[in-house]
Design goal:
single chain, Rossmann fold, six-stranded mixed beta sheet, alpha/beta, disordered N terminus, 31% helix, four-stranded antiparallel beta sheet
Length: 255
């Protein structure tokens, strides 16, 4: 069941004056942020600044202490199928195959036959490059392949917003780069709003339209940096002068 109304404007997510306290600790302080339709936004900041807490509030997994968060104009009161979430751990069900893990996410879709669910699952496994792996179990896959399954699962029910919390943080450098390239290709082909939490400034600049920098705890929005690099983005972007300038500009906020 969705917990927000259909999208009415280009503002998909609105975070207005959100504060979050855990006992006497203030994790977020008066945070306001807007995510637009088909926009890719990364959130960067020091560990403990409240990035993941903000994502959990938007996902409906954690209530705010004060303030309002809306998706498509409807106030969030819990998780909804208008928002997909990918965590650092793939969180796959180990007793289910790859196909069944993705199909599990489609169980809540009304009037969707098993045959249709299987067809949709095959489509999204193909999208993330996992053709031929549908009958494998999670423990038979590498970490990067498990995250591909998690991405396919979150995209399968066509959420309006994809929320990603350090999804590639546990991967080796080469696999991480491959997953970043996959994510940008998927986003470019199937436009949706993405919010990516990351500690990696290079990852944030490479993937995003806008990088939001958070202050140390209590977390606030310190600054927003537009990323005007051309799309589609290939490896050549990483060695461009403009990429290096953007990277250095954001890095300077932490020095």
């Amino acid at each position: 069941m969705n917990t927000s109304t259909p999208l009415a404007t280009t503002d998909v997510v609105r975070v207005e004056n959100v504060t979050k306290q855990f006992g006497d600790v203030t994790a977020l302080q008066d945070v306001s942020l807007t995510l637009h339709d088909n926009e890719f936004v990364s959130i960067v900041g020091q560990s403990g600044c409240g990035k993941s807490t903000l994502l959990s509030i938007i996902a409906g997994l954690e209530p705010s202490t004060s303030g309002v968060v809306t998706v498509g104009g409807g106030e969030i009161v819990g998780p909804g199928r208008d928002r997909g979430v990918v965590f650092q751990s793939a969180t796959l069900l180990p007793w289910l195959t790859v196909t069944d893990n993705v199909m599990f996410a489609l169980k809540g879709e009304p009037d969707l036959s098993k045959a249709d669910a299987r067809e949709i699952t095959a489509e999204y496994l193909h999208l993330v490059g996992l053709d031929g792996f549908g009958d494998k179990f999670p423990n038979q896959l590498s970490g990067g392949m498990q995250q591909r399954v998690a991405l396919a699962r979150s995209l399968s029910y066509k959420p309006r917003v994809l929320l990603m919390d350090e999804p590639f943080g546990a991967l080796d450098a080469l696999t991480r780069r491959s997953m970043q390239e996959l994510l940008t290709r998927v986003w470019e082909q199937h436009k949706l709003t993405v919010m990516l939490i990351t500690h990696d400034i290079e990852e944030a600049v490479y993937t995003s339209d806008r990088v939001v920098i958070m202050s140390n705890r209590p977390g606030t929005i310190k600054r927003e940096v537009p990323v005007d690099l051309p799309r589609p983005r290939g490896k050549e972007v990483l060695i461009s002068d403009h990429f290096r300038d953007l990277y250095a500009d954001i890095l300077s906020e932490f020095e």
